[in-house]
Amino acid sequence: MASFIIGLDYGTQSARGVLVDCASGQIVASHTHAYRHGVMTETLPNGAKLPRSWALQNAPDYTEACLEILKKLGLGRIIEGIGIGFTASTPLPATADGTALSVLYPDEKHAYVKLWKHGSAQPWADSINRQGGDFLAPFGGKLSGEWLIAKAAQIAADAPAIWDKTEKFIEAGDWLVWQLTGQECRSLGLATYKAQYDPETGQYPDGLVPELLNRLSKPHRVGTSAGKLTKGWQDKTGILNQPDIAVAVIDSHVVLPAVGGVTSGCFVGALGTSAVYLYLNQTARDFPPGIEGMGFDGSMRDLWCFEAGQAGFGDTLAWFVNTFPLSANRDDIAENFRLYNDEASKITPGSHHLVALDWWNGNRVPHANSALGGLLMGLRTDTTAADIYRALLESLCFGARSVLELFRAGNFPINRIVLTSGLAQNNPLLVQIMADILNHSVEIPEIDHATAVGAAIHGAVAAGIVADYGAGTQKFGAKTCRTVRPDARHSAIYEQLFAQYQTMASNPALHQTLQNIDQIAMSPAINDGNAETGSGTPPS
């Protein structure tokens, strides 16, 4: 009887699964399930209003999606392994048996999952950064408000009753693995990059959040089996056996084996809702200033992975297209994207007078500050919506170029640049602009559902279906890729515009102004009584 592996890709709005034939290596089926409550930015399920800069999710939505996908793909089949990629950092408070606190306290906003782009924890990150510590060295000397520790600090300060009831504070990807296997088994990648775990000492940072260490646990490297699917899940899904469940992996990292990102000197850009850039190296290197984090065995086995990223990428474009639609049918996002891309492709680089900063969800690299905001410079009375859209595309690529320059400044050799995701596959204008601004050829692996396939390969390694990730790439990964080369004329123009972008991005007065604006918007007077309960202010 045929056997299969399943990869689960948990993104910001939905989860996707792929079913891959173990013998042929081909995708047999796929299924996507949207989260019931989506991203909660305005209200809780009970209608209670949320403050600005909040982004929550409801943990039961994840298990609901998982059940629907596994039933659709696994019913009546033998599944050897299941791998999970999960958007991060997206932690939640839970009891000792894994019950999400939002189930027990649905009226408490701090009981819910804090999505990666939940922005109101940044002040706690700033406070921790002012204190400093050796644990910050592998993370560019600063903690991000997107990460687990800052979000734990926010709960402990603003909702001490909820923090007292929190027996486990856990990334949603690790929590889902726990639900499937019945036992807690955390991911080394999630712990290292998002909770500053030090594999050499086997310790998380201490003394930052009251009793945080008691709510964490030892993580395990990628490709480890976290256990078997429980009998209860087997019965609910109709899967014929109890497959191995791999430890969870950060969604942007999990794609690596699907796109051939398993070798030293490879620079991979995963262009999703946000963007993550990963540089792989066989040996440890001095940490490039400004890069977000580094870790060993947390993304690929036996390789160091240096991580950087942009807090907004695809969602920046989606925000603009949704807010200022070109189509008469404003709700047809695909048609609006098509119209904007058609119009923007006719615009010559540099002709629209615009340069934009890509910080619409804050900045990850090099400032690690979610309080920063986007900016458009050069607006005129003849500026069109397509001009602005093109400037936003360019700003995202300028942000990617900024990341690449940090690696180059650290003398990291760039052997290949690989771009992946639906944006990379389906938006040729974006890819061409990226090649032009990077002034480097880029490879686009030709594979459907790359992130979910990457997760499936992790499941295959955990189950012993393949000996290692190289073998997993060869059997299940992309077989072909297309190469997009830069246009030398456009690259010359973009060199000048990138210099202006850098001038804007490095201006300390601009940073302070953007932070001041954010503080005004977050003030209790503006929020009309919807500010945080509790202290609302991190320690100085």
In CATH, what is the homologous superfamily of the largest domain? ATPase, nucleotide binding domain
Q: In the CATH hierarchy, what is the class of the largest domain?
A: Alpha Beta
- The second-level CATH architecture of the largest domain is 2-Layer Sandwich
Please tally the helical runs, counting DSSP H or I stretches of 4 or more residues. Answer: 19
Bin the helical content: 25-40%
Count of spatially separate domains: 3
Strand residue content: 15-25%
Broad shape: globular
**CATH fold group of the largest domain:** Nucleotidyltransferase, domain 5
SS class = alpha/beta
Enumerate the spans where pLDDT stays under 50 for 5 or more consecutive residues.
531-535
Short description:
This protein has 540 residues and is an alpha/beta fold. The chain is 37% helix and 19% strand. The strands form 7 sheets. Strands 1, 2, 3, 5, 11, 12 and 13 form a 7-stranded mixed beta sheet that branches. A 5-stranded mixed beta sheet has the order 16-17-15-14-20, sandwiched between helices. The protein has a two-stranded antiparallel sheet with strand order 4-7.
Describe the model.
There is one protein chain. The chain is an alpha/beta fold and 540 residues long. The protein has three domains: 3-252, ATPase, nucleotide binding domain (Nucleotidyltransferase, domain 5), CATH 3.30.420; 265-311 and 402-488, Nucleotidyltransferase, domain 5; 314-399 and 492-522, 2-Layer Sandwich (Nucleotidyltransferase, domain 5). It is built from 19 helices and 22 strands. Strands 1, 2, 3, 5, 11, 12 and 13 form a seven-stranded mixed sheet that branches. The protein has a five-stranded mixed sheet with strand order 16-17-15-14-20, sandwiched between helices. A two-stranded antiparallel ribbon has the order 4-7. It starts with a strand and ends in a 13-residue tail after the last helix.
